[in-house]
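Annex B. Sample input.
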Amino acid sequence: MYLHDLRNAEGEKQSKKRLGRGIGSGLGKTSGKGHKGQNARSGGGVRPGFEGGQNPLYRRIPSKGFSNAKFKKVYSIVNVSDLNRFEANTEVDAVKLLESGILTKVEKDGVKILGNGELSVALKVVANKFTNSAKEKITAVGGSIEEV
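Annex B, continued. Sample output.
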């Protein structure tokens, strides 16, 4: 097969309606718009959602409530067990976590350390938030924490 052999699939391309080209075309005279009326006029028609003067759906539906979703704090989460890959007495911060591949990106509110798993090396961990269990586990093995 060559480029000059390529053809469109049957019915793929449709020629556009040619309006006002005589009565034999089926779209002559009124050009498919019928006789008079709002939709026959230039610029005619109604806006989207208009229901002929009836109260439209978007006004009939109650708009209740408020969402705090846009004020939500978003942290990149790291478990204590993930920190075991670092050598003892290392300072672990967001940059080190990115370099080691534990995190792929740091969310807008920073890093939060969770207490899932066990920690076996003493580290100095620098993060934006710590859970109480994470604080206990890090200090229990002789490490230290610093909230930024």
